[in-house]
Amino acid sequence: MLGSLLIQPQMLNRMQGRGAGDEIADEVVALAHLLSLNPAAADAVLPAFEAAGQRFASTLLARIGPRLPQALNELRALVEPLTTPLASFASGPPPATTADMLEHIAAGLERLAPLAGLLSDAQIRSTLRRASRILTDTLGLSQAGFRADFLVMLGEVRAELRTHPAGASTAARAVRESFACLLNRLETDVYPHFPTLDLDVDRLTAILIRALRTTPLPRIGGQAECLLGRIEAVLRLLAEITRAAAIRARSTRASAPPAASPAMAARRTAPASARADAAPRREDDGQYCWYASWLYARHRQGFSNGAGIGLLQNVTPGYPGDEVWRSTDGRCLTLRRATVDDAVLHRADAPFAWFQAPQFAGPPSREHFSFGAIPPAFLEGWTQATAILQKLGAGFWHAVAMGQGEREYACNIPLWLWHWTDGIARGAGGAPLPSLLCRSLGWGVGSTWLFSSLLPMLTVIGGSFEGVHTETTAGLGFLQWLTLIGGDALSAYTISGATQGVNDFFLSLFTLINQTGAGGPPASGEDLRPANWAHADAVIGLVNLAIGFGFRALIPRDDYGLPFDNNGAAAFGPLYFPWMLLGAPLASAFSNAIGTLLAWAIARTHTPIQLGEKIGVGALVGTLSFIVEFYAQRDGSTDDGRYNPRIDPAGTPYTDAAGNPRSDFAGYPDKAGSPYQLPYAAGIAMYVGQANLGFFSHARWNSFPQIYAYDFAHDFGDEILAIRDGTVIDFFDWIPDNINPDGTQRTAARTASDTVMGAGWRNGNPSWNYIVVRHDSRIDSQDRDQGGTPVTTYAVYGHGATGGVRELWQALYGKGALDIIGTRVRRGNPLMRAGSTGVSFHNHLHLHVVPGPDPSAATHTPPRPILQEGDLGDYTLPFVFADAPGDGVLRNLRWYRSANARSTELPP
Fold first, then answer.
1. pLDDT digits over 858-903, tens only?
2. pTM metric for this prediction
3. What sign does the dihedral 674-675-676-677 (CA atoms) show?
4. Which domains does the chain have, with CATH numbers?
5. 784 vs 667: CA distance, rounded Å
6. Bridge-based pairing state of the strands 845-852 and 709-712
């Protein structure tokens, strides 16, 4: 994913000739270079953020402290419509088996059905308004105050970073110093220019509601009654399957070879003195403790896990968590650690259930968990049952993705089967499949990464070769593969993260509801409260997701794209770095603070140290994750085809020849009347690496803002077909293959073209190979300029191969170069062969449509271009494809199958 996002020639080119942002860009690149050489050194930055976050939290709590109890009461009332039904659902005698739990969930769906009403527009609006009043009126929080305190915190982070801890490595010191330099640049060059965000609650509510409407959630809410019946039937079927699998598993164990003789057991048993302290062997693990393993997965790991890999463990999908196992004799509860030595949680002379260990049933201690309204037996069954459902759901999602997309088999089929196999193993084997495999091999828990992390990664890597270019150079083929793996990785990460996130959210809610004891830490002495409050990350994460989505939606579309200028032709984007380096950490710190307050309300206790940790870590993670989240959320966000930049990258208003300013478009046309079909032969599927408002070059920061454009991953030499009937008005194909020509090379190409077309045949030196087709028959409902005004349109096909127009026209139509311009073509006629000329990442077709004069306004006659450079519009128009699914608008990182019938017969 990082490769497809960051390793782009546009980014490298835009690092040349920078203007006002030179210093900041240098600091960012220097820091990124240090981290790429030593990723573990990122852990050296975290302590500074944690320390500053604690001071920030102390200042904040000192200001809101007297009002905090009332605010927590109001927040508790706000979430009661969610927590009360869940607590009621979990009450009563716990189901005895996983199958029984699945049936219990099925039977309880009707009671939980009202929760779907929480997703209605009216309920969302009411909830957010109440939350806003609690924050502003009850607590007295304000954007200005939080921002001022946050800037003070970043200043303290900078000071902390320049005080190196004893024993810090050279790499850690370099990363800390580089980060401090970046913060210093931000303080002087960025903070003064950062705008005040419009955080009006009604506007944020509208943003969130619009976002939810793009997901299946509104349809689920509107069809809850019908869907509940289907889900109930599926759950009962799964219950029967699980029950049958459990019976077969017990039968298999009963027919297993007899246990080793006492003499053999004695030989492999450790001495009594060692057994008193050492953890049992892996082969002695008998029962995987589901809920306890969830509680301890990261509980002792913290961020750094004591191994300097904190960043890795927090961003790597499937990174192994610690696990809790009960021995086969039922007398020892062991914490299997991922990267350090295992530990014994409890040992007794008689068998005991995991929840009878002191950590769950004993007196208060530094590390214990409480069970209030929800009993441990229910949580054990719920955790296993939902772990099964999570894996089956992820597999089903991959199957749906495979069925809805083109050429999405190589990655989705293995992941689909893997998730379902793991789900079955969780039901029949009583533990996650990676844990079962490692236990059978006698390996430690840390080795589960081979199956939970490495295996899916290798699947994504291997599957991403489906559709890779084979007719190009090795270098360009590798670059095209980066775009493929970027799409596959983003899809796999989304499926895994979303299903795991839903599972963790409910477990986090149950755990917080079960918090008992004091309403806060003691004024002095050791804090012996239950540690349920420490498992609020999923609840906090949901708040972070919602607020982060609203923050990124507030960023103007004019500031979307890479943070560097285009080949020195455009000024540095003065607002991009503030969004990334101030806005993102500020929004993340704020949302983590709000999420923590909400978690306190649910748990009926507060923990100041938790608030400081979440604020500090949130600021750091918000910065590091901004680019990927910004790309995932905003790429293609054109306001349904209405967006049209008003000012150029230098801040000068765009105007037409008469001095009129630009205005919005009327939106994407109706697909039903579209004359356009995809630019390749029917039956072929092509990958769209970049679509409308694309991050890498289809944005305002380009010298020619190609907002409405598509990049189709054609291989070298592939035929490019006309997408619509029209007349060829211009072409150029003398740029050598696989180069972005400099001035000398462009002049040489123009000179070479003069020998064929005649001296002075054009008025400029093109930088790529292309062909332009005028659409002679205007369709007023489709060919719409700014404000919806009908206009004549022209399609531009770019990045062609050297000679890719002339060679194709001669071979297919028998027309020489002098006869191409002025020829009429129909949709489906081959026009050019694909290449990689100009500013191009790999072999592909760049396609966009621009406005231009009516056919009667031709300025020249063939073989000269009918219109010269500058005669066409300097902005692109929204258009849709009739043979694309849905609304006809293509999205990035997807495959599309064409219905465009290829024809070598030109119209008369």
1. 778 899 999 887 889 989 999 999 999 999 999 999 999 999 999 9
2. 0.88
3. positive
4. 23-223+385-527+541-634 (no CATH), 677-897 (2.70.70.10)
5. 9
6. antiparallel
